[in-house]
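Re: the multi-chain job from yesterday

Posting the exact lines I submitted so nobody has to dig through the queue logs.
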Amino acid sequence: MAAVRRSGAVERLRVFAREGNLTFKALRTSKLSMVGLIILLAFVVIALLAPFLAIQHPTYVSVGGALQQRWPTDTNVALEPPSLAHPFGTDELGTDLWSKTVYAAQLDMVLPFEVMIPSALIGIVIGGIAGYFEKAFGEVLMRITDVFLAVPSIVLALTLAAALGPSLTHIVYAMIATWWAWYARLIYGETRKMKHRDFVEVARSSGLSGPSIFFRHILSNVLSPAIIQATADLGSVLLAIAALSFLGLGASPGTAEWGLLISQSLSYLFVAWWYPVFPGIFLIMTSLAFNLLGDGLRDVFDPTARRWLSQEMKGLPEVTHRETPAAAAPGTLLKVDDLSITYLTYEGPVHAVRNANFDLKAGEAYGLIGESGSGKSTVALAVMGLLPPRSTRISSGDVFFARDPTRATEYTNLLLLPDNEMNAVRGKDIGMIFQEVSDSLHPSYRVGFQMSQTYLLHQFELVLGIAAAEAEGILPARPCDACGASVNAGEWLCGTCRTVVLPPKEMQRPLGDPVPKDVPGGSRGQLRKYRELYRTYSKRKLGPDRPPDSRTKAICRKLAIRDLRRAMVPDPERTVDLYPFELSGGMKQRVMIGMMMASNPKLLICDEPTTALDVVTERNILDLIKKFKEELGVSVFLISHDLSVIRRFCDRVGVIYAGKLVEEGPLEAVFTAPVHPYTNGLIKSLPKVRADGAFVSKGEYYTMPGSLPELKQIPVGCVFAPRCEFATEECRKTDPPLEEVAPARTAACFHPLPGGDPDGR
Amino acid sequence: MTFDLEHGKTLGIVGESGSGKSTLARTIARLIDSSGGSVVLLGTPTTKLRGRKLRKFRVNFQMVFQDPISSLNPRKLAIDVIGEPLKVHFKVHGEELTRQVTDLMSKVGLEKGQLYRYPHEFSGGQKQRLGIARALALHPKLLILDEPTSNLDVSVQAQILRLLASLQKEFDLTYLFISHDMAVVYHMSDLVMVMYAGQVVERAETKSLYNHPLHPYTRALLDIAEAEGKDLTVTLGGEPPSMRSLPTGCRFHPRCPFKVDACDKVDPQLFEVESGHFVSCHVFGVPNPPSPEEAPHEGS
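And the result, structure tokens for all chains:
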């Protein structure tokens, strides 16, 4: 039995070693923190080897119980410049400065820790207790902390030195007295955040007492920010100590301490430049090194974030992208061609998407079904050019997009587009809606303002066109171009179909024309100003940060209300002036959709657009997207793990499993008669209330065994084989290609199900 | 609200976010205090327990949370996650602890080799299995499952539901199963309670409720669950009200397609339409309720 216990300890040690190793690996790739670490280690070595490195050595005498350094003096060589005998020169008493600076490292490398460790400990205890017991007790503790925060350490040190006499010990006390409060504040905030996390609730519900929750669950999670902060602060502490020494409050005169050396050098600044320079360089280097290390630790310390930290990729071949697709079926809007995407992690590359091929036709809704980790969102992000550049590689393939609908056979490879052109594609040609509704809108701007940014960025010509037409007064009563209803004079928005109706062509004077004598409905100055504006902004090709004046503002607002109404937001006149936090999740998603549809994109990518919403709201949002698809002909690329979401309005669906497209076909065909065993399992796993009108019996749903594989290696054979009941030797050896199994239907399987389910599961 | 739950049965609670179903779960789990009324478990009024007594009594009821990621401490190994309640309540240590934890892990379908792993090394479904194993460690009588599968994938959801069903038999557990998915609740529950804006609008045995749902809200939810992509017979507009500004009368009336005059004036009470089937509605919560076709429609 002892063996079992030992094996537990061994296992723990092994975990510890593995985590330490990963931390070190992460630290090693953060170049700046490595520089910091190396400098610090160098100073530690200097401090340790000081007795060997130095030319002269101090003696220690006891003065009133405290040890003081005494250095050999030789006035014959006072204030000598750097030479071979004295590499850093000598001071006013002829003592070798190299020796003093080196010995000072002993003191100056230790002092920050003497301040920091007690400060951090006191701060963690007080801040933690105050944060955990928020009520009166915590309040009182924090107000006491605030008092300490308000006292500057210099003032406190001055007072202490005045009362007790200058000494390094007093400086350390004074520094601790003020620094702990910063950690108390930090830990207080962190603890309060942690307190409401689910795992703390879990601990409470399993009956842990307050103190054990604090020590077992909260402390370990708030400790790392404190350690990181403390490391970064060591540099500042060192500088503060030096500053206090400089003021003559610290080490007794003659002691080797960088701050003190600089202070003593002041009187000789103009005759001995070397005197302050070398201690100064040492001081700055150490303090900088502490800061660099602290910043590096910030990225390294989090075990969850570390997985996706980037690293330089070796051994991946360079990919050459093609300008045009080899072949594209007519009417294809988006063609994803042999796309493979690799994530770079510390544990090696992850082959998240492998050789994905699919087309999306203009006006079509294509649904990509996949479970989390299947790579479906990765595909969407690749199309949008939003993959994190440092931690991902497109390892093969292209994404072609028909930007100009009039020249449908001309394709742009989105992967080859430079950033600025891709910006124009995003939001204008392709809109995207994300799952996290609340993160998609900026919390501190009103809905209308955020929407106006879209108009000014992507529809600037339209806004300026309207503004110029309004200013020139060339908006007569005329029929709507789209629906034929009559539009009143002075109006530019059709009251019936809500399309923008610009003035008749012949009335839109070219911008270069001389300003007419009579400007109906406006002054010549106004018109000039508008032409000026139009020219400036069209030159910049980009809208300004804010609507330039009340007229454009009003136009944007009117357009925003129009688009909110199109997205069926109730009471758009009121909603346009609300902040996102005043809206429900469903309403925010409507605003997002309205905003994305404002520039009439050709393609709308929806990545789990309703996952965060309630079922009724989900249904309504899906119906809204369906409406846009049907009425405006926008193509939709819908990504979801939820089969019922995909089923609502997609024309064709693809099923992606572990980064590989395994089946594709028309929606109803795939749902009623899946061909790939994975698709079949997925559909049968979904619990149902009724089948063919009759109630299904309780517990009657299929359970697929196993789980998604990790993709650290490119799998050999069919990636689904380990979970597949039909898998044979062939499946485990060869990866089945995506082939046509029936008209318009493809599957990557050696044993496709004939017309779906063979055993009537 | 008032309801009883028999030993060994499952009560399913359906509702949208903000309907109060999670608040109810947390109140029963004694994570938040109720503002009135009482919860009696095994003859003990849990709402009256405080301090050490409450902590001791907590072995009888455990909770599984919706989000498997945030409900696990990222800095605890699997053995500590599951073993912690055992250490605290039963003072189990050393190899006995390892043995019991391994046992629990195999019960929920995890392997011994995963004892010394951090939560982030588990997949979403496995994380939820960890959470379930932890909740089971104390051999509770009642397990409160707050949307245990809504953050999971379809295939994983089926696995977890299957696991929960088999654990219920094996450990003779009573479940309070909360979900927004009518189909999932159908498969898990003996009794179903539909909540809207903090109130119970319908409560019945599963068969009875799914056979003839009466409240318009229940109907709408069921309609969506069974639609399979087709158009709905009744579309609900609007959104649930904010709990700070509740509508007068029936809380559902602003969205209800069957609204009558009384709806915005009088709050309907739960009425037993037939044995064990309770509905709170002015139109359908009456003796011999009309079928939806003959019910008075808005504007008619």
